[in-house]
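[audit] Reproducing an earlier prediction to check determinism. Same input, same settings, fresh worker. If the tokens differ from the archived copy the diff job will pick it up downstream; this log only records the rerun itself.
[audit] input (110 residues):
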Amino acid sequence: MTTNATKADVTSNPLNLKIEELEASQLPTHLSDVQAAAINTNFAFDAGLNINDNAIYHEPLVNNPYPNYFVVQTSDKNAKFVKTIKKLYQSQTIRDYIKKTFKGSIVQAF
């Protein structure tokens, strides 16, 4: 699902907020110019921001409708390399690495 929302899609603004549009990668560098910004995790993380210290709101961490997937061809779904990748990715070592490195900004969905 691709969403291309713009400020024209805002149907109500009871607080009369001034809504500015910027290219997503530019948001972290302009954070000091605004009161709040909706920043994608990859851009926020690259700017040294994380969900626990800097977010005033974030997507649900459980049952998130926008998870990332590892995808393979149907013909490879039972292949040894797929099982190996799955085993390694879902290992405690990787869980610990993600937790330590991303400080809650990325949550495993497996």
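[audit] rerun output stored. Observation attached for the diff report: The first helix runs from residue 41 to 46.
[audit] end
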